[in-house]
Every structure is written in structure tokens, then in C-alpha cells.
Design goal:
α5 links the parallel β13 and β14. The chain is built from 15 helices and 21 strands. The strands form 4 sheets. Strands 4, 5, 6, 7, 8, 9, 17, 20 and 21 form a 9-stranded mixed β-sheet that branches. It has a 7-stranded parallel β-sheet with strand order 10-11-12-13-14-15-16. A 3-stranded mixed β-sheet has the order 1-2-3, covered by helices on one side. Helices cover 31% and strands 19% of the residues.
């Protein structure tokens, strides 16, 4: 009886509210559509829009500006080349030209000379702006306003994000438009929502109702659909919504949760022509050896977060071996269906090494006290599931990751598209910093550095823009593309760690002392030049202010000497 009541209330919430991040449960009878988990209990959090962009953190766009003498990594997988000059007019790249030869002086006073702004990037590296295809912004339970996430993304070179969802439909739509107009310091925004979010047409309880919502969404600034495999999202409803989405040039992505995966796994989703599978859900369930449902413990309860996240990894020894014929057939089948894999390795990485995630260098300076509190293990915060996290839990997750890494790397190796997403704001993962960790995990999975940057740029842009039926205008540095770029002092192909906002610790041979090097120098989005160091300083000030206002210490310092 109670279960039926909960499901009815859930359906009502889906029809009358937008999506939001998860908050602590204050009133168990209040239900709303949770941004990262589906329908959950608790008071609906409030999203505070970003403040206007200021000249202190950004400059431009300009009539014409030039990046001089850089080494270019263009995003296509091509090797670095340089020195190169890159000319931007307004928000478009208009020229990419060789500026000289390695080891020789560059010609002084070279064209163009009629520029309004110039960046001397001699010895530096330029890449396309990074794309994060799985994000949520923090509500007031995690940060004072959403610019906390925006600035951390930009400070780490992320110029495009796909919100799944970013926030509730009204806020996400407004922030998308404000970012497009460069009114705020924020990446480009793609606005995905779940079935039923934002409209007043009632629960999505039939295939026809799903089609009606999709047509409504297409007219209301929504770019795509995020499915959760919730009990009310039957295979028939999801399949109809996917079909209608494609007719309306909208994208589709699914978190194939355990609540529905027995009837709609990764293979089923591919056959329904889903565009993207995000996370690991649905893949291993398609590769079970000798059964069709994972062997859950008899006392398993999905709503118990430690059960949900502790036991899922135990599937590692229930599947066909990596690279077996069944394994390869699944990958080939998904490739034939043009499914994109968006693994979000980082968001569950704490499961295999909790201590490392909890004590990351950036937690003290860049994690708001609200977000730090949210990360602490409780029974009513999503992703705070480390109630009694043991060596055995971490063992299972490490074995699971071996399979997951092999699966994703194998998909890339046969020509499948793999993109970079983070899902930050949960499980000790902080916006921006988690993106670089995701790149490092791609390396552990077997991707080469150039393959990683292709996934982070060109492939991510293709995933975001592809459903619209137009070529991606970002993701590659070449004439005619939108001016979204990242400029760094260190070679990211040699060491991805230098992309972290906290930098990389290196011994200075002259002083015999450790020093921090690296970090992004400039992020260019739509022809606007952002000083990444200033953005980080603004975030650090925000965190310090919140600690003082709330009289809370937040995360402990990682090293008293730093």
C-alpha cells in the first residue's frame, strides 16, 4: 500500500516539477524529481542563478585577437604542431597559420597587425575547449549559487557542458540562454531533462503521453532527454520517447538503473536507438554469464545506498570474461547501433579508494562547506553511501573497474565513440577537478593521451551537437570553428596532472624545493578570454566566505606546509 502511494506521489511530482539535485530528507512525504537519482524524498532545493559576468575575470569578445606561437593539439587526434598563430574574429577562428620552425626564432611583427588583443603563447599549448557531457549544477544545499560550478569548469578548460539535468527546467533554460549571450561566466549549456519535467500534462504513463511531452519539450528550449530506467519508465515508453526525440532533433541519454535494467539493459537501449549510455549501468547486465539478473544478496534493498553501490560491483565475476566472443559481439552490436559510451569513471572512483578521494588536494580550498557536509556518509544524501566501507568493498570495485576499463577501451578500439563526463557534486567529486581525474582514468583504461583529448573535445562536441543534425561547431581548432580553446603552459600529453587547478608538484633542481606547476592559464569560450587563475581565486574566496558565514571549517587541509 505504501509503495503504491509513493509511486503515485512520484508520478505526480514528475508532472508538476522540474528536476533538481538531491537534498537531505526533511519531509518524507514530499517527493520531487531528483537530478541525479530520479524521484527522491526531501525538500526541493533552490538553484541560485549565476551573477553577471565581470571584466575582472574575462575580456572580450574582440573584433580581432591573436594567439601567438603556440603548440597546437587540434582535437582530431593529429599530433601536436607548432609554433602556430591562431586568429579569432568575434567568436570565430579565422586563421591557423604556421609561425615559424621549431628551434628557430619566430619572425617579429608578423601578420596580422590590426589586432585588438594578443596572447603570447610561445612555449605553451592550445587545445579545443573541453566538453563535459554529464553535469548537474549545485543547488543551495551545496553552494551559494551555480557560478561555483561554472567557474571551476571554466578554470579547468571546460567550455561546453551537457546538463542531465543542469537544474530544473526553468532555471536550466534561463542559464542556457544567459550563457549563450555571454551574460555570465559559464560554459555553453545543453539542457537535457527527464520525462515529464516542467510541464502540467500529468504523469508519463503511456507511449503517447511520452511523445506529447517530447514535442512540448522541443518547443521549450530542452535539447534532449535523460532516462533513469525508473519503474514507471517502461521499455515501451522509453522507446517511444527516443523515437519522438529523434524526430524533433533532440538527444537521448540513459542511466540504466537497476530498477529497470532487468527489462531494459544496454543491448535493449542500443536496439531502441538510444544515443548515449552514461555510467556503467546496463553494460555488464548485458553480459551476464548463466543468468539474466544479477545475483543480489537476499537482504538487498535498492533504497539502502550502501547496498545499491556496494553490491553492484559484485557483478564483476558474473559476466563473460573480458574480450571473450560474447564480449566482442556486444561491443560490435552497440557500434552498429551508433551508441556512445559516456563512462563517468571518476564519479565512482571513491568506491575503490575512499581515502584518496576524501583527502584530495583541492578539498580544503575549493570545496564549499555545504558540499563537504553533503559528501559525509548519511542515509539520506545520495552518493553518501560509505556507511561501513571495507577492504572487501574496495576489492570488488577494483575488480569491477578492470572489466569496465577493458569494455570502454575495447569499444574505442573498434571505432566506438567514447566521451568524457563527470557527474560532479556527489561522492567527493568537485566540479572541474573531477574532469581532469576523468582524463587520468581514461589513461588507466588504456586510452593514449591523444585519444583522451579527442574524446574530451571533438568526440564530445559531436555527441552534443549531433542530435541537432548539424556539424559540431566546436571541438576542433580550425578556421570557421567557434573560438572555444584552452591554453596551458605544460604539455598535457606528457602529464595530465598539470591540468588540475591545484597544479602538479615538481622538484625544482635549482632550489631543491618542491613547487607547484601547471594549471590552465586561459580558457576561451565563444571568443571571450577567461583568466583561469582569477576564476580559481574567486572560487577560493567564495569557499572562504561560506566557511566564515556558516562558521564551519569544511574539509581539512591536505598538507599543513602547503
Amino acid at each position: 500500500m505504501m509503495r503504491k502511494m509513493i509511486l503515485r506521489l512520484t508520478a505526480l511530482a514528475l508532472a508538476t516539477t522540474g528536476l533538481a539535485s538531491v537534498a537531505s530528507a526533511h519531509d518524507p512525504d514530499e517527493w520531487y524529481a531528483g537530478g541525479a537519482t530520479g524521484a527522491v524524498a526531501g525538500a526541493k532545493p533552490h538553484f541560485v542563478p549565476a551573477p553577471p559576468r565581470t571584466s575582472a575575470e574575462s575580456k572580450g569578445p574582440f573584433r580581432k585577437f591573436v594567439i601567438r606561437g603556440a603548440t597546437l593539439i587540434d582535437g582530431t587526434g593529429a599530433p601536436p604542431r607548432g609554433p602556430m598563430d591562431i586568429v579569432v574574429e568575434g567568436n570565430r577562428i579565422t586563421a591557423v597559420t604556421q609561425a615559424g620552425w621549431p628551434g628557430l626564432p619566430q619572425k617579429a611583427d608578423r601578420e596580422p597587425r590590426d589586432f585588438d588583443y594578443e596572447i603570447d603563447a610561445t612555449g605553451m599549448y592550445v587545445m579545443p575547449g573541453f566538453v563535459d557531457t554529464h553535469v548537474h549544477t549545485p543547488a543551495n544545499d551545496k553552494a551559494p549559487d551555480v557560478s561555483y560550478a561554472y567557474k571551476l569548469w571554466l578554470a579547468h578548460g571546460v567550455t561546453t557542458v551537457r546538463g542531465v539535468p543542469l537544474a530544473d527546467p526553468a532555471v536550466a533554460s534561463s542559464e542556457k540562454n544567459r550563457s549563450a549571450a555571454n551574460e555570465i561566466a559559464a560554459p555553453r549549456i545543453f539542457n537535457y531533462q527527464t520525462l515529464g519535467a516542467g510541464w502540467s500534462g500529468g504523469p508519463i504513463d503511456s507511449a503517447e503521453k511520452a511523445r506529447l511531452w517530447v514535442r512540448w519539450a522541443a518547443k521549450n528550449n530542452i535539447d534532449g532527454i535523460k532516462f533513469f530506467n525508473r519503474p514507471e519508465e517502461t521499455p515501451e515508453i522509453i522507446t517511444a520517447a527516443i523515437d519522438e526525440a529523434h524526430k524533433n532533433k533532440m538527444g537521448t541519454v540513459a542511466h540504466l538503473a537497476q530498477t529497470g535494467v532487468a527489462n531494459f539493459n544496454g543491448r535493449n537501449a542500443g536496439d531502441a536507438h538510444l544515443d548515449t549510455i552514461t555510467h556503467y549501468y546496463g553494460h555488464m547486465e548485458s553480459l551476464l554469464n548463466g543468468s539474466t539478473i544479477q545475483k543480489f544478496p537476499l537482504d538487498y534493498n535498492y533504497n539502502n545506498e550502501q547496498h545499491r553501490f556496494g553490491d553492484i560491483a559484485e557483478i564483476w565475476d558474473e559476466v563473460y570474461p573480458a574480450n571473450s566472443p560474447q564480449w566482442q559481439e556486444y561491443l560490435e552490436h552497440q557500434k552498429e547501433n551508433h551508441v556512445t559510451f559516456n563512462p563517468t569513471f571518476n564519479i565512482y572512483a571513491a568506491s575503490r579508494d575512499l581515502m584518496r578521494a576524501r583527502n584530495a588536494d583541492w578539498q580544503n580550498k575549493y570545496t564549499t562547506p555545504q558540499l563537504w557536509n553533503y559528501f559525509q556518509s548519511t542515509r539520506d544524501n545520495h552518493g553518501s553511501y560509505f556507511y561501513d566501507w571495507t577492504t572487501e568493498n574496495e576489492f570488488a570495485w577494483n575488480r569491477f573497474y578492470r572489466n569496465f576499463f577493458d569494455l570502454v577501451n575495447g569499444y574505442k578500439n573498434i571505432g566506438g565513440r567514447v566521451t568524457v563526463g563527470t557527474d560532479s557534486g556527489f561522492i567527493f567529486k568537485v566540479y572541474g577537478f573531477a574532469y581532469v581525474e576523468e582524463l587520468e582514468l581514461f589513461r588507466e583504461a588504456g586510452f593514449s593521451p591523444l585519444e583522451i583529448l579527442r574524446s574530451a573535445t571533438m568526440w564530445g562536441a559531436e555527441e552534443a551537437w549531433g542530435p541537432k543534425g548539424v556539424p559540431a561547431p566546436t571541438g576542433v581548432v580550425r578556421p570557421g570553428m567557434l573560438a572555444d580553446m584552452v591554453i596551458v603552459k605544460e604539455n598535457p600529453l606528457a602529464n595530465l596532472k598539470t591540468l588540475y587547478g591545484t597544479g602538479h608538484s615538481r622538484l625544482n633542481p635549482e632550489t631543491n624545493k618542491q613547487e607547484m606547476v601547471g594549471g590552465v592559464s586561459y580558457t576561451i569560450k565563444d571568443g571571450v578570454v577567461y583568466d583561469a587563475k582569477k576564476l580559481l581565486a574567486e572560487v577560493a574566496d567564495m569557499v572562504a566566505s561560506e566557511k566564515a558565514r556558516l562558521n564551519q571549517p569544511g574539509a581539512p587541509a591536505p598538507n599543513p606546509n602547503q
